[in-house]
Write the structure tokens for this entry.
Amino acid sequence: MKKIIAIILSLAFTLSLAACQSNNDTSRVTSDKNQVTSTQTDDTLSNVEGEDQTEESNEELGAEDDFSSVNSFDDFKDFIDSNYDTIITETEDGAIIVELQTPTTNDDESNKESASTTTAPAIPTIDKTQIPQKPTTDSDDKTSSTDSTPSKPDAVEPTPTPSEPDTPSEPDTPSEPDTPSTPAQPEPETPKQPEYTYTTGQTHQKLHYTKRHLYSLLNNQQKEVYSAIDVAINNLEEGVTVNYDIYENDDYYILYTYIFDNPEHFYLCNRMCLSAHGNGSYEILFYYSVGNEKGEYSGYGYGELTEELKTKIRAKKAIFEAEANRILSTIPANAPDVWKERLIYDRILMDGHYNLGAQWDGLANDNWTAYGLLVNKYGVCESYSEAFQVLCLYAGIKCTGVVGTAGGGHKWNAVELDGEWYMCDITFDDPIGGAEGAAYHNYFNRTSNWFTEHNHDWSNCEYDVPQCNGTKYDFDNYFGESRWG
């Protein structure tokens, strides 16, 4: 008899991200860049605008929850087994439901109690007036020295004339003309990288799934399953058959890996079902959704994947792809990746809005997918993060999501540029109450350490998060502009 094993991939992803809206509603910052005072030091960055929503750190997490030890897919599975509770329930029809639950913390309550509004910090700026002053002083010295030398010829006597030739040693002052080279010191400002702006008619090479972050962590057999999943989902098939014991090997998590690697498939629910065929093979069954249309789901216990549902998904996918390509057509194809990244980041921030009224329905909702921010221009943190990830991937930039907490359930991103990783939190750079159409960059291309110091925690993330140590493309270092627009 055919045995059905349903695996509900809720984990911390569904539990923490479903809490994203409720927590961020109360804790996201009311921003006013005019509050900035020039007397504060760089150390005040620990209280930057977006951080009012992340006031309390997650210090209670034990060392055993640290995800830094995860360097492979096997490590990931071991981490899940040791850090999550498993609840197994057998239904009347013989199906076995396995649900993994994340440990609970008191972060939400503590953040609600301590949420308050603080004055925005001083914005660190470069004093551009001091360096250019040096050439002025040098030129003054030169004119005074040349005025003093001609006075000597007045005392023309037979004897002084021979000694006068020695005075040419004084023209050593011309060595000072070399000091005018000091005007080159303004270099920190002038040799800015070439600037790029929005244009039209551009095309980009999409980053293939085999080049994406989580795929790179799999072994060869797991990569075969991943590739089979990709073909089935692109064809809107009900599932895919795997000819080995995927259940015993815990390799059913590969679907979960695939979902996080490919947020352009916004119509996939964060759930799956395994069907055992009795000959050692298993079928992975998918759950599809149209988004906001309640009841329009397919999957075990939810109904069949009808042609009508497929037609609706394809129509929605076409709208999504058209809008993604429209945005990318404005990003210069010849720009360095960091400029492409910034222009994508800014476009989402200028067009998007945080949806305070979003309600999670348990399976799927546009406000929690890339579709929300790209097409509807509304969404919560997960929508911001996945819209940014999709556009980066479509522009050929390696980008992954990071699930964790920042005062509540939250999602942000890690981006690879020139072989180094950087963290970005695009949601926190679009603070509620900020200037309409503004693009802030306080959380743009920071290090992992900086994010940890600013109340972001991802120790319970279900998959490997790259260590972000890059500094070259930190916003201050590369662009030299105010992070506050």
User: Anything to note?
Assistant: The chain is about 30% helix and 15% strand.
